[in-house]
Amino acid sequence: xxxxxxxxxxxxxxxxxxxxxxxxxxxxxxxxxxxxxxxxxxxxxxxxxxxxxxxxxxxxxxxxxxxxxxxxxxxxxxxxxxxxxxxxxxxxxxxxxxxxxxxxxxxxxxxxxxxxxxxxxxxxxxxxxxxxxxxxxxxxxxxxxxxxxxxxxxxxxxxxxxxxxxxxxxxxxxxxxxxxxxxxxxxxxxxxxxxxxxxxxxxxxxxxxxxxxxxxxxxxxxxxxxxxxxxxxxxxxxxxxxxxxxxxxxxxxxxxxxxxxxxxxxxxxxxxxxxxxxxxxxxxxxxxxxxxxxxxxx
Amino acid sequence: xxxxxxxxxxxxxxxxxxxxxxxxxxxxxxxxxxxxxxxxxxxxxxxxxxxxxxxxxxxxxxxxxxxxxxxxxxxxxxxxxxxxxxxxxxxxxxxxxxxxxxxxxxxxxxxxxxxxxxxxxxxxxxxxxxxxxxxxxxxxxxxxxxxxxxxxxxxxxxxxxxxxxxxxxxxxxxxxxxxxxxxxxxxxxxxxxxxxxxxxxxxxxxxxxxxxxxxxxxxxxxxxxxxxxxxxxxxxxxxxxxxxxxxxxxxxxxxxxxxxxxxxxxxxxxxxxxxxxxxxxxxxxxxxxxxxxxxxxx
Lengths: 298, 298
What we know:
EC number (chains A, B): 1.3.1.12
Shape of chain A: elongated
GO biological process, one term (chains A, B): tyrosine biosynthetic process
Distance between the termini of chain A: 56 Å
Protein name (chains A, B): Prephenate dehydrogenase
Keywords (chains A, B): Oxidoreductase
Order of helices and strands of chain A: EHEHEHEHEHEEEHEHHHHHH
Pfam family, one (chains A, B): PDH_N
Oligomer: homodimer
C-alpha cells in the first residue's frame, strides 16, 4: 500500500495506471501532472487524478510511488527535473516502449538516485490514446517487462513486481538490450513496414483506386500504420540500431522468397509458405511459439 | 433464372456460390465436381450440390451456368476438358484471384467458345476454406470484379452482372491488367511481406522468445501469413511481374523511411508518419480513399 501516487504524463498509460492502482486499493491519493494544462485538468475532472500539479516536481512531492508516462524522448529532462525528490523510499517507474535509451537517460539524470528506478514496459495500449480512454483494466492479463539495472535496488524491483502483479499483469524480467532486440522484431519493425507499405500503395498514381478495392487482409495488415506519429518517431529513433538490424533480416527473407518466385520454383515457394503458414497457424498471442515443428503437409 | 448450375471445384467459393444461387431462387438444380471424390461427396451430403458428377465435363453437361472454382493453375486444363460443351447459351465464369493468367489460359483453351466466358473475382473469402464452411451469404455486400475481354459477348457480361447483383454483390468492371496491378498492391504483396516478416522473426536464434512477447499489433499484421500455401503459390506465381513491381515500390518507400532514421531526422520522420497515419485513419474498407488530403496536424 502506498501513500501517494505521482503520475507524470496523464495520458492513456499514466491515467490507466492511476485508475488501476486506486481500484486495486494500492493507493488512496493521486497527484498528476501533464505538460499540457488542459490534459491535467481533464484528468482531474474525470477523477483519474485527485490533484492537478503545476509541475513534474510538484507531482513527485510527497509521493512514494511515481510513474513516468511521457514520450521516451522526454525521459531524461523529466528525470532531471524530479531527481532531488526521489528518495530511497520512492519507487520510480516508467512505461516506455524502448529501454536502452531510457536506461541511458536514467544513468545520466539520476546519479545516486538510480537504485529507486525500475524501468518498465507494459505490453498494453489502445488504438486511441488520451486520458479520456484511460481504463482501470488496461493492464489486466497483460505482460509487463521490467529491465532492472545492476544498480537498481532489489527491494525496488520486488515492489515493482508486486505492484504490477496486483494490477493483474504477468511480470517478466530481461535486460534492456534483450528487450529492445525483441521489440524491434515483433513491434517496431512491423510498424515501420506497415507505414512504408501503406505509403507505397497510397502514393502511386492509381493509389486511390487501389485503396478502394482493398479488403480485410489489407485492413488488418495496415491497422498499425495508423499509430501515433510522435510516439513512433520516438520509438523508431530510440531503437534505431535494432530496428535496422531486424529490417536487414526481413529484407534477406523477402529476397529469398522473391528469388523462388523469379526462378519459377513453385514447389519450393509452396513448401516455404507452408512452413510459415503452419507456424503462424500455431502461434498464439502470449504463448510460447512452436516454430520449427511444422504440422504434416496437408 | 437458370436451369442447371455446374460447379467445378466444390470448395468454399464454389460451394458458397451454389448455396447462394439456390437461396436467391436463381437455380433449382446443382451438379458438382471436385478433383477429390471425398470433397464432391461431402458437398452432396451437406446439400451444397444435388448431384455429384464424376468429371468436370459431366458437371457441365446440361448446365446453362458453370462456375469454375479451382486453383488458378488448374484453369487451362479444366477449360480444355469442358470446352466442347460450352455452347453459346452457357454462361461460364471463374472466381480466380488473378486475371491476366486466367484470361490467357481461356484464350488458349476456349477458342470460339471464348464469348461465353466472363472472368470474375469475388473479393470474398474466409480464414478457413473447404466446402464445410460454404455459406450462402459469402458474397452478400462484397465486391465482385469482372474482367471481360473484347471477345466476350455483351449478353454474357450482362447475365454475369445480373447474377452477382442478385446475390447481393456490387459489380465492378476493369481490365485484367488493371485488376492484377491493383491486387498485387493491396493483396498479393502484403501476403508476401507477411510471409517474409513472420519467417524472418521466427527463424532467428531468439525467435521463439520473441514470438512469445508479441502483442495485438503483431497478431493483426501477420494474420494473413497463415494463408493457404497452394492458393498463395498460385497467386504469387501467376501475378509475379506485378507483385515484384509493387515490391520494388515498397522497398523504395522503406528505404526513404530508413534514410530519415539513419539521418536522425526526427522531424521529417514524424511528418512522414503523420501523413501516413492520418491517411490510414481516414481509409475505410470499400470506400474511396482520401489520400493526399491529410487532416491538420494535432
